[in-house]
Amino acid sequence: MFETTRRELLKLAGYSASATLLSGMLEQIAVHASGTEKLPRRVVFFVQSNGMNPNHLRPEGVIAPKNGKMTNDTLVEYSLKDRKLHKAFEALSPFQEKLTFVQGLSGCIARSDHSANHGCLGACPANKGPMLQTIDSAMAYALPKGIFRHVLLGLGGRPDTTMNYSLSAEAAGKANPIVCSPALAFKSLFGSVSEGEGRTAFQQKTNLLEFMKDDVRRVSNSLTGEDKEKLDQYLQAFENLHTRQQELLAKAEILKKNAPKLGEKIKSDKSSLILESQIEIAAAALISGLTNCITFASGGGGQQFGSFPEFNLPDLHGVGHGNAYGRTSSEECFVELRQFHVKLIAQLAKKLQDVKEGDGTMLDNTLIVYLSDSGESHHPNLREWPVVLLGNLGGKLKTNGRYLEFPCYESKNHRTMAALYCTFLHAAGKPRDKFGVADPAYKLSDQSGVVKELLA
Amino acid sequence: MSRFHFATFLIWLGGFQALCASDQNTLTQAQAFLKANCIACHNEKKQLGDIRLDDLSLDLKKDGERWGLALNQVREGLMPPKKSPQPKVEETREFVALVAQAMGTRPSKLPNQGNLIPHELLFGKPTSEVVPPAGRLWRLSPENYLLFVRGLSRGGVTGLTQPFTLVPERGIKDFAGLYSIDEPSTEILLRNAELIVHAQTLAKNDTVPEFKKLMDPELVPTRPQIESAIQLQHRLAIGKNATDEELKRYYALYEKCCQSASRPEALRTVLQAVLLRTDAMFRMEYAQAGKILPAPELARAIQYALGFKSDSQLFNAASKGELQTKEQVAAHIKRILYDPQIEKTKLLRFFQEYFEYHEASRIFKDKPNNWHYDPRVLEADADRWVKYLIEQDRDVFRELLTSDRYFVNYTLTMNKQTRKEEPKQTVPTPMKRDDKTKTYYTIPSIEENYGINKWSAEQPIRMPENTRMGMLMHPAWLVSWSTNFDNDVVRRGRWIRERLLGGTVPELPIGVAAMVPNEPHRTYRDRLKVTRAEECWKCHRRMDDLGLPFENFDHYGRFRTEEEVLDLEATEKNVDKKNKPLGPVYKKLKLDTSGIITDSGDPKLDGPVKNPRELVEKLAQSDRVRQVFVRHVFRFYMGRNETLADAKTLQEADAAYVNSGGSFKALVLSLLTSDSFLMRAEPSTMESKK
After folding, report:
1. Overall pTM > 0.80
2. CA 20 to 30 Å from B477, out of A162, A244, B212, B246?
3. Which domain holds residue A1?
């Protein structure tokens, strides 16, 4: 009885104009109040450029298929228990029982050269711009909203790139910007908890936003039609930013406690340091409850591979074409890069594991999805798209130390990336049986539905 | 008079407003065509291609996209399919005219959709009236945002982030109807405003003195001093003063900020607010019926159209009320266009967006061992050449298509002694080291790309005879329209179909995996035969034969007469004693560089061509091709696609170009003094107009 009354109350509050300030928190409380969920769940999509070699996912004792081409007609499964991971993934060994390697899902609809762009997270054609909502954004809407519904961080094609619009989209034609500058990301997420002058600046910004809301509204009110719609978007931006200021103020203590201490690293133009800063910001944002959905990109989209001269890897495109940069093979370059990125993921997982939540830890309620926007290689055919899953989203997924090779593209039992994304949405409580654009070349069976073997 | 002729005749009568009102009648007539020819396969029960047409309403706002799709398919002869009964030619033409008429009074929103208006309806007959477009908001482009910032501070502002992006489509992208400002962009704008005001008030150099003197924390500025600073910021940012009512609101903000911050900080916040105003971030183009745009907005429109930092004469004229007539406007635009001291970035920018030769450096290619390949230098050479032709300003478009004299590996550097600019090689002849002999040797530099042996300071340089001419055979363009490993025949052909012939090509159907077989033993022309399959050819016939003549060049843009392919037989035999393969063996096959122009809309153009030079020569002589070029210039400077109501503007611009001996500046002047640029149909309710 109590729950029903409370739900209704919250629902009413959620729709009232005065509730804007608290809408994020109310949404979270409402989820709890629904009685179906106990704790917030979170997801992180970690996208790395330049392909992911399927062999990196194969632990000790799992043999790669002859000529590298899978031919299995049924699911092949191994337990990761007591198996040594490939050296590229060694850093994730402490999380082995929460890990699942997924092989054999195809994404041919997104086939392109070097990057599937929005097709990677959208399961749609690669070169048509943001043509639909990508899975990261869909999950951001499926999960309870933090102060920020969706935080997108990463490294651009070059260290001075500040925004990357090539991977994520909120809707058709509306690409989500991935913030590639740690300084910009920090200011946006943790600027409110600076001391002294910083605090004054925060207040001035609040005054400015209030003024701008009023100013843009005056002009907007004198317009009609499409022009008014355009200006209303600008107005909405100021309104949202103003509301966010107040929400951030309300959370000041928590933010102060969790804000990452980045020091001089935040200004670095080295790709590796940019990524290290960004992963710390990402972890702090999750732990502070600023957001429950993060997209993290190391390069990606178009031909934005990123470059790591500090590792003597100045041109990742060159690595894709066999350049070894003083090593014995380009594969060594790929492994080194993978190791670096996997360490970042392990670092994030460790931070989440260190935070108690309910009877377990934050990591227990989180899912980290790691894949490349270029599928299985530098020039992919996307008939198999390696994906690594860490965490089970509060027990909704069966990802407890498994290695899975799904039936190959030539099999009627084959599954696509779209099915994986449907699975995520089922696990998040917003079930969908179709995602993206179906692959017209695959005609052996229906492509809709989930990957049932992954659902708990 | 047939119904088709009657429909087109109506347009020439000039009653566009009346036509707008009668869209529904026009579409009702067009529905009869759909009923007879389309609905059998596109109805409630049967929806081939997932398209339903039986429920098309007469409301173009709601169903404009589907009407446009039907128009395009019928116009291009793609529908009804060949195996179905075909409508008569005149019925098809009538349908196209009717739908184009209904749709043509409002522009298609997206770039590359401008050609949906049939060319003959714009240039077929002289017309005497322009119906001005509706008032509009046009968000600053990324380039114009930088111009905006440059006008605010004498020095540079460091640390700025570009807040705006353009659609990723190729071609002309800065269309007024496409862009607004979302939350992430607004966050960047806020941060940029802070940095700009910091540079204006706090930096050691390059501050605005009027602001700087108010930064003393001990000073208690008077209200007139604060208001004077705000007015100055207004003029710097928007080119006009704030109204009394606006000043009051700014002052209220100042007082509010003073409660929690120092006076200088409070003023800085107010100065930031000015930079975020709607009329700073958007071009607000509204005018009273029958009058040209208000002077401040017009001055900004001219500034952003031509891309110059600032011009005190223009903005002074605007503030003194001397920008009220077309003659006054024309005098200023002409002065600015022909003043070599005023840098106008948008002249070169048009050609960059039209030809899209700046994609070369984004196409990754393996670096050749035996010569120096650098696509950035090729792009810079093309820029230098285009600027040269703009300066010459004679027969510009024809020269761009047919001139065989390019700038090659060319840059200008300042001689510190003579204080004069002198030409030199951008990339001097490179040295390479032979690791075996440990000796150095030279390899050809950028000149290799053009097929010339020796660099000269006297430029532009004539290309070797019968090899290449014009932009379409410039290495920068050829590379821009290539892939990592091959030429991009199809998209080159598409470029010619759309940008020179004014035609359209449907988008690649979703889900079609367009792949040329990876069979290195066959020539690219041979491999491209895959598109001759019936379901592909209906679209590819509009592209492939226009792009194939450019097989005369390899994918680095080097001239060739033979194509190297894998010799399967020789490769198989190329083994050592233990039968271990020793590697691939290649052979050269003679190239076929022929092509065909079809369905151009100009009967004189249609027919076979032997090579790319013949193709381009033919195109360069065509009035239609020149007019299609004018249509693209229109789109760039107006920020929208043309409509039937712009026919007079286009015809006059074309005449201005022809009568001036092919002056691009005369063409731009004509466009920027046209009613399409200066006038707006809707009366404005904006405060700024009062």
Report:
1. no
2. A162
3. 1-37
